[in-house]
Amino acid sequence: MTDQTLTRDLFNDVMVPNYNPQTIIPVRGKGSRVWDQQGNEFIDFAGGIAVNALGHCHPRLVAALKDQADKLWHLSNVYTNEPALALAKKLTELTFADKVFFANSGGEANEAAFKLARKYAYDNVGPEKNEIISFTQSFHGRTLFTVSVGGQQKYREGFEPVPGGITHCPYNDIAALEAAISDKTCAVVMEPVQGEGGIICGDPAFIKRARELCDQYNALLVFDEVQSGMGRTGELYAYMGYGIEPDILSTAKALGGGFPIGAMLTTDKVAPSLGFGTHGSTYGGNPLACAVANEVVDIINDPQVLADVLRKRQLFDDGLNAINEKHQVFTELRGKGLLVGAALKPEWHGKAAKFLAAAREHKTMILVAGPNVIRMAPSLVIPDEDIKEGLAGLEKGIADVVAAGPDA
């Protein structure tokens, strides 16, 4: 039984208006299905914005959380704890990294990554080597430093002055990166698949050249894998599909499967610059979060699960192409694995949110990636029948929007 006094209208009365949530209030989820206060059932293609990588209330994650809840919740980093040590060991064994810093979110993981990049350059060269190169349309979080590194002006407006020493280049533009980088560059920061910027995949030649340029100029390559990591692209981390390794990597979202956690991964070469007292997080490495994340990693890092991500992506592509043959709304499909972008035709630019709301009316939950791209980031283990049912709801929503016309 839900409290019917807790309505969407109450949000406007008691919450800061930085969000504009949908009209429904979900109250329960199981697998890739969600139920609202009225008992309406939805197929979840949103995944909590690429967070619920194993769906809602996965039994192994629930068991891990309940087990840890009876043992230890919080210590602070005056002490370490077993779940944090186990997770750090696991992440270093499975990736390029030698060392891990835990935080609570992707924004915090990126904040730590960018601070480390500057501190490493300061320690090894000097204060003049402080410039960070990032890319237009990138997104790295909502702290003042991360919105500054992020390549979307709208997130910085009204918060100036923002940290300096940051240059933004066009993504996938090798010549622009070659022109921008110098001996003053301390780091090149990129998402291997831009998420909020429109689900744009990094070109392999571009990413390879970025690695070469960082080596040439003694700069660090920082990968933001908050959205692309943890199996989302069919690899445990997207960098693994490019044949190169970063110096620093941020991970969050799917790492906790819905429980808040973030992590920054780096090498033995770079890690010493975050020496004792240089950075911290009260809740970072929380035993509850790390216990859940340990189970998430074990489930996702399975060859069959990762292979199935690519098979399920084909089901999405086939379904979306069939929808497009009928309704002619997409210019292309983007992304890798189960990070799916459908770019809208020019006449539908600025209307992505209309498609989201229309799909919801037909019991399918989707996302947008900016005003011109429909985004889907479902559970990596979503059943095939849920994909089919969700795409059917999406098609009905698209049909409604098309029938009303671009100017509705």
Automatic annotation (TrEMBL):
Annotated N(2)-acetyl-L-ornithine binding sites: R142, S281
Listed GO MF terms: identical protein binding; N2-acetyl-L-ornithine:2-oxoglutarate 5-aminotransferase activity; pyridoxal phosphate binding
Pathway membership, UniProt: Amino-acid biosynthesis; L-arginine biosynthesis; N(2)-acetyl-L-ornithine from L-glutamate: step 4/4
GO CC annotation, single: cytoplasm
Entry's EC annotation: 2.6.1.11
Keyword Transmembrane helix among UniProt keywords: no
Quaternary assembly: Homodimer.
Family affiliation: Belongs to the class-III pyridoxal-phosphate-dependent aminotransferase family. ArgD subfamily.
Miscellaneous comment as given in the Swiss-Prot or TrEMBL entry: May also have succinyldiaminopimelate aminotransferase activity, thus carrying out the corresponding step in lysine biosynthesis.
The protein's name in its UniProt record: Acetylornithine aminotransferase
Gene this protein is translated from: argD
